[in-house]
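We append the chain.
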Amino acid sequence: MDDMDRRILHELGQDARTSLAHLAHVSGLAASSVKRRIARLEELGVIKGYTVRLDHHALGLGLQALIGIFAATGTTREQLTDALTGQEEIVRAWTTAGNADALALIRARDTDHLEQIILRLQRTPGIAHTRTQIFLSELLNRGD
């Protein structure tokens, strides 16, 4: 991967629907060369796919929180994954090496909805307890 690939990736990161003509213009390459580079980056797994970024505020899901999940003794990773998969408000989840066994990023309508999610998680078999942090404002976002 060279600087030209990075420039193309940057442009695609800004707008995945940008045209080959635009990418050719900003890179100084022919559109056919840009297309070949994108295909190679896809084959290498650098580009994993294209997505839509939603405005969660406009969808009524403007409240974000990070919930620390503390698993009950004996709960396996697979059981924890199954427990979190059934919660539609969880958009991402990770295992951790910190205090919590896992962290879950959730989106909720408001604090009442958040409370419902937390209570539902706490009643889920395999989850001993949770610890929640609500996001107030974003300081930095470099994307995925």
In short: The two ends are 18 Å apart (CA to CA). The helical segments are 3-14, 20-27, 31-43, 77-85, 111-122. The longest strand covers residues 63-71.
